[in-house]
Every structure is written in structure tokens, then in C-alpha cells.
Amino acid sequence: MQAPLVTELARVVELDAEERVLLAGLGGSRRQCRAGHGLVEAGARATAAVLVHEGWAFRHRTLADGHRQVIDFVLPGDICDPTLFVMPRADFSVQALTDLRYSLVSAEDIGDLVSRSGRIGMALWWAEAHEEAITRAHLVAVGRLTAYERVAYLLWELWTRLAAVGLADGEGFGMPASQELIADAAALSYVHVSRMLVRLDREGVVRRDQRSWRILDMERLRSIAQVTDALLPAPLPRAGVRLSR
Fold first, then answer.
1. Please, which residues have CB within 8 angstroms of residue 163's CB and are 6 or more apart in sequence?
2. In DSSP terms, which residues pair with 52 in a beta bridge?
3. How far apart are CA 32 and CA 83, in angstroms?
4. Are 159 and 212 in contact (CB under 8 A)?
5. Which of 68, 175, 179, 237 lies at a C-alpha separation of 20 to 30 Å from 13?
6. pTM metric for this prediction
7. CATH number assigned to the domain comprising residue 193
8. Residue whose C-alpha is closest to residue 45's, from 94, 75, 89
């Protein structure tokens, strides 16, 4: 099975066999951790980003009053978070949501990869730009959309990100996150999230089956979430950049 990071980046940049091998080996040896384990702690010194290979994690900040804001979910193929290379201390925490396989990626790892392949550098640049677009859309959703629209947006966001790495299809996706965690991601109460999910189900937009979500009407989901085509990933123009030898 192809590594999720390779699957995602190969959709937007034409990578040859050697470049795929280089990307698949990013971060070196795989590590494992159990659900609930902290990978990054806010305030701690960190010199490496977390590359997730299997499982889910989430990035969050907990305020002095105990309220938690989930910044985003960290999915297979995600590198979370290269800003650690330039920050003296982490300003967020990362916790494993499920059992996890991951690698630690240093700035030297990224630099070596980019120096060996300009196309990989372009692909990583695309990934960072796309993540920024998703972050902006998430901020707008939390700040301005209604509770109904926010929950719809979060489901769409997770579906499109999982689909990009081959872990979701037109039918839906597996969701290990609890409603409490969804509430912290959407800046809503547990009760609000529960009501909105029931409404989406009743209206025939999505349907929950234990820990999986089936999307019954993708166009309706996108319309409710106010998703624009600007958020949909697009291939980079072919620039003729070849692998360095």
C-alpha cells in the first residue's frame, strides 16, 4: 500500500519512482503510540514535526479556564507542524486520537529531500498552501457560520482530506472522533453538535453508522457548508523540474 503522503502529493505533482521512494522514507523509522498519548506538549521545546502514517491525532490548545479548542485533526499523510523548526517552544499540543504510527521529521530531513528533488519541494509547498487554505476556511466556519453550517463544514473538510490520501470515497469515511471532540473543533457545545448531526441525518444529507459517516448528498453538504471551488485541490502546472542526480 502506498504511503498516504505519497498518495496525496502524487495527485498534484508528477513524481517518478525514485521520488516516491524518497517521500515514503521521510522521517526514517516508524514509531508507535497508543490512543491518548501526547506527541507534542504546549510550551515544550520541539525540534521535529510529526508525520502521521496510520491513525488520527488532533492538535489543540487548552486555556487557563480548562476550555479546549481543537485546532485541527491530524490525519495520515499530514506533517504536523513544520513551524516547530523555527519556534523556540510549541504553542499547541498534539494528542493521539487512535493508536498511531508516525515518524519525527527534522528540518534537515526536509532540506535534504528538497535538495534532491525540486518536484518534491514543489509538492511540499503545495501541501503547505493547501493546508493554509483549509485553516482559513475553518477559521471562517468557526467565526461566522451557524452551528448547522459549521458541523456540515467539518464533515466536508474531513471527507475531502481523507479522500486525498485514499481513505474515503464518495460514500463516506470512518470517524473515530467523539461528538465531544467534534464540538471542541467546531467551537460548539456537545448538545449543539448532537442536534445538528440529527438534523443533517433527518434531511438526508449524511447518515451515521456507528463510527462511520455516509454522505448521502455531497452537493447539499457543500452548499450548507458554503464550500467554494477555491478549496478543492488542483494539480500544479508542470514545470519540467527533474530529480537531481
1. 169, 173
2. 102
3. 23
4. no
5. 175
6. 0.90
7. 1.10.10.10
8. 89
Distances (CA, A) of 79 to 3, 101, 131, 214: 13, 13, 10, 27
Number of H helices, E strands in the chain: 8, 11
d(Cα 12, Cα 63) in Å, to the nearest integer? 38
Residues 150 and 218 in one domain: yes
Cβ(77)–Cβ(165) under 8 Å? yes
- Is residue 243, in this structure, part of any structural domain at all? no
Counted residue by residue, the chain has a size of 245
Estimate the share of the chain in helix, then strand, then coil, as percent rounded to the nearest 5. 45, 20, 35
Domain coverage including residue 21 = 1-143
Q: How many structural domains is the chain composed of?
A: 2
Give the confidence band of 20 by pLDDT, cuts at 50, 70, 90: very high
* Cα distances (angstroms) measured from residue 199 to each of 88, 149, 157: 45, 11, 19
Evaluate whether 66 touches 184 at the Cβ level (below 8 Å).
no
pLDDT band at 219 (very low <50, low <70, confident <90, very high): very high
Do residues 141 and 153 make contact, with C-beta atoms less than 8 angstroms apart? Answer: yes
Are residues 132 and 20 both part of a single domain? yes
The answer to whether residues 92 and 42 touch, using CB atoms and an 8 Å cutoff, is: yes
- Three-class HEC string of 87-142: CCCCCCEEEECCCEEEEEEEHHHHHHHHHHEHHHHHHHHHHHHHHHHHHHHHHHHH
| DSSP for 140-152, written as a single string | HHHHHS-HHHHHH
Residue with cell 516516491: 20
Segment 79-85 shows an average pLDDT of 81
Q: Let me know whether 126 and 212 are in one domain.
A: no
